[in-house]
Each structure stands twice: as C-alpha cells, then as structure tokens.
Design goal:
Aminopeptidase, about 20% strand, globular
Length: about 260
C-alpha cells in the first residue's frame, strides 16, 4: 500500500478536519455512497448496499489520492477519490476486496443482475471516454466526490475541491475529467468552470437500461495555478471557503473548461 502523500495533511477549517483516507475509512465511504445513491434502489437493501460497496471499491482501485473530511466527532462529511496517470495507487488490497464483493453479488440471481447492470455502467463510461479520447489529453480523473447532507453550507465541498485542484497542480496536471449523471448537481461543476464534453441522454436509448434512466455526462477541466504557495499545492489548504449557493451533494461527471486553483 502506497502512502497517501498527495492528500492534505491533517488540517482543520471551520471545525472540519481534512486528512488522507485510510483503509479503515472505507466503511464510512460505502455508507455515504449508499445513503446518497443506493438507499432508493428497488429490491433488497442488502443487494443495494453490496452494489454501493462495489462502486466505492471500483473508484478506489485506481485512486492515487484520497481525502476525507470529518467533523470534530469523527463523523463523515465528505470525500474525494482521484487518480493521476503514472502515480502509484493507494491500496493494493482493493482488487481482492472488489472480487470478494462481486462473488457475493453473483451468489444470488438478484445480486447477479445488479452486478451485470453495474458492470454495463462501467463499460458505457469507458466507451464514452474512448469516443472522445479523453485520456489522451487529460491524465487525471476525479473518481468519486461525495459530500454529506450535514456538511452543506459549511464549505466542505468547496474545500475538498480546492485541495484536489491544488494537488493536481502540484503533480503537474493541466487537464482532468470526471463522470456524472442527471441525478447529481452538475451545476456545481459548471459553476467551477468545467465544460461538458460528452453526453448520453436516456431518451435516445429507450431499449437500454444502463444508467436506470439517467442522462450520463463527462466533464473536463483545466488546472491553472494562480500563485498559490507550496503548502496549498501539496494539498494543505487551510482557510474559510465561502458557500457559493450551489448544492454540494455532487457526484462525478465529465466537463471541459478552466478552473483557477
């Protein structure tokens, strides 16, 4: 397991602590994912929770940077999982953990169906990436961005975002991208200056059930250092982030544009 050296050191902003993700945080991230997207899924809640675990591990597998925000009592407030091409992954145990979850899902017909739909989602995202050759020009991806409802209005989403861009800048990243869909607050990314570079509307694919009827997007952004100091560029960013009037319950997507770190 590589050290999570590109995540912020333990810092506190407005009472919220930002630190590197450890393996012990996986359960909290899975629960946040489930509460955000899985809890309303039809069928057996146990299957939905296992599917949430699959998604989190899928996003964590290539991650080279991971930062978590928590309140003074240690409660989950938010997380970003990201990867930079060529950097070492954080947790080499993820593939085995992911295979175990997939085996559990595959043990029942309902679980196997959920797993098949989930893998079809992953394959669709990869096809969308290939169609626009996004990985040829953007070496970094925001894999997962979740902010807890209790954190809204406290600048948590904005601080995690600033930390992420500072880390990208420090790593020499000029362009990055993310996946999102219509169940998420894509306005946050547009507010940050990202541009939508790929889109798939469910109404245009009535015979396909990938995405559960959601429209799927890719957003791309540009990282431009703006005179920030070395502490910020290494992911240590302390100070007040003013809420910007947008919903921070956001998730990943693909937009293109300019973001000032």
């Amino acid at each position: 397991m590589a050290a999570n050296s590109n995540a912020t050191a333990n810092t506190a902003t407005n009472g919220i602590v930002y630190r590197a993700v450890t393996w012990n945080d996986v359960e909290a991230i899975v629960d946040a994912f489930y509460q955000t997207w899985g809890v309303n899924e039809p069928g057996d809640p146990a299957i939905a929770r296992m599917t949430s675990r699959h998604f989190v591990l899928h996003y964590l597998e290539p991650a080279t940077r991971a930062e978590i925000a928590e309140d003074p009592d240690g409660r989950f407030m938010g997380v970003t999982l990201a990867r930079v091409a060529g950097a070492p992954v954080l947790f080499d145990r993820v593939p085995d953990a992911l295979a175990h979850v997939d085996d559990e899902l595959g043990a029942t017909p309902e679980g196997a169906d959920a797993l098949a739909r989930t893998k079809a989602w992953h394959a669709l995202e990869e096809r969308m990436e290939d169609d626009i050759a996004i990985n040829d020009r953007a070496p970094a991806e925001l894999e997962l961005f979740v902010v807890a409802p209790a954190a809204r209005g406290h600048g948590v989403g904005g601080t995690l975002w600033r930390h992420l861009l500072a880390a990208f800048a420090h790593a020499g990243v000029e362009r990055y991208y993310l996946h999102t869909d219509s169940s998420c607050d894509v306005g946050f990314y547009e507010h940050q200056g990202l541009a939508r570079v790929a889109e798939r509307y469910a109404k245009d694919h009535p015979g396909e059930h990938v995405g559960d009827g959601e429209d799927i997007f890719i957003y791309e952004g540009e990282v431009r250092p703006s005179g920030v100091d070395e502490a910020v560029c290494t992911g240590i960013y302390e100070g007040e982030v003013k809420p910007s009037g947008v919903d921070e319950a956001v998730c990943t997507g693909i937009y293109e544009g300019e973001v000032n770190a």
